Amino acid sequence: MLGSVVVGIGIAGSVRMRDLMAPLSSSAAEQISIRGFVSRRSLEDQQGVKQISMTEALSRDDIHVAFICTENTSHEENIRQFLEAGKHVCVEYPMTLSHTSAVDLWNLAQQKGLVLHEEHIELFTPDFKQLKKDISGKTLEEGKLHFTGGPLKANFGFPSFSGIARLTWLVVLFGELTVTSVDLVEEKENKYMKMTAHLLTQQHKPLTWIEERGPGLGRAKHVEFRFQDVTITELPAGQREPVGLFMQDLLLFCRKLQGEVSAAELQAERNRILHCLELADRIQQITENTHA
Ligand SMILES: NC(=O)C1=CN([C@@H]2O[C@H](COP(=O)(O)OP(=O)(O)OC[C@H]3O[C@@H](n4cnc5c(N)ncnc54)[C@H](OP(=O)(O)O)[C@@H]3O)[C@@H](O)[C@H]2O)C=CC1
Ligand SMILES: C=CC1=C(C)/C(=C/c2[nH]c(/C=C3N=C(/C=C4\NC(=O)C(C)=C4C=C)C(C)=C\3CCC(=O)O)c(CCC(=O)O)c2C)NC1=O
């Protein structure tokens, strides 16, 4: 049995606790039990789980795994602390807010022989799974992914990082990308922002990625993917699944802990994650250079 701790009790942290308290039966997730949670606030028991201090979480021998569910600006330090303490880490995306720090942390995990896993629930959604099937074998001519959502709190980082899930969709669907230009509109007083990134596939086909957030904007994705033979303008519905998105991610993390994910798969996933973070970094740099 592996003991675990959940760090940061917001939306994601609460869902992690719920899943750890009720793991999918007869699955590898039953091999992890939750021993406590860490929060910067003083909280009552949550879902029957007790708060413990960070020091205790880092030092206890019966805690082997940490789930990092804090806001994005805290991930890097949280991951480093737990890896240094010899604990496996599952972190909610994005792992960190720069490509360099992610490379560092991954090297640290490797040195220590620990699993470092970045959650990507967006890849488990029924619409994504169906979309991937629908476009397989098709040749892209041009595409657009436009995300809208409510304002994020300040500590979620630059939009290319907080929106890494959309970038990950594009990379998984269309392969490695390059950034050609970026436009950022920010109205801080209105809590409004719109980032438009122009990307190119390796076949030099243009992709536009838009992250737009503001009060009253509902969480939604609008797509327009033009292929040689067909144009997709709506996300397919996909088949609803009985296992929740975070539980699916937990199962993948557990397979890694048990050594059931092949070295080749791990390498491919790591390359994808680092490529996305590198693109996110590039998008941020281009914006800062243009607005300087
Ligand atoms: N929400 C989602 O559906 C998804 C979230 N993620 C990722 O999960 C991470 C966390 O996101 P999310 O849980 O949505 O963010 P939240 O804003 O809900 O929580 C972030 C942190 O803020 C603190 N916090 C939460 N509620 C309060 C409060 N009422 N008052 C003061 N502090 C509070 C908690 O830390 P503490 O307990 O230490 O105070 C918590 O860990 C991010 O990296 C995000 O990208 C990824 C996929 C999906
Ligand atoms: C209602 C308020 C609400 C909040 C505050 C919220 C927060 C929230 N949802 C996220 C992702 C996500 N959130 C969801 C889905 C949901 N998440 C949910 O809380 C619910 C009810 C669904 C409904 C299925 C999915 C699938 C992702 C992955 C990112 C993506 O699909 O692009 C993220 C990570 C950053 C991002 O990718 O945008 C945050 C911070 N989601 C919300 O819906």
UniProtKB/TrEMBL annotation:
One of its GO terms (cellular component) is cytosol. SUPFAM superfamilies: Glyceraldehyde-3-phosphate dehydrogenase-like, C-terminal domain, NAD(P)-binding Rossmann-fold domains. Its main location: cytoplasm. Its cofactor is Zn(2+). Pfam families: Biliv-reduc_cat, GFO_IDH_MocA. Monomer. Reduces the gamma-methene bridge of the open tetrapyrrole, biliverdin IXalpha, to bilirubin with the concomitant oxidation of a NADH or NADPH cofactor. Does not reduce bilirubin IXbeta. Uses the reactants NADH or NADPH depending on the pH; NADH is used at the acidic pH range (6-6.9) and NADPH at the alkaline range (8.5-8.7). NADPH, however, is the probable reactant in biological systems. This is Biliverdin reductase A. It comes from Danio rerio (Zebrafish).
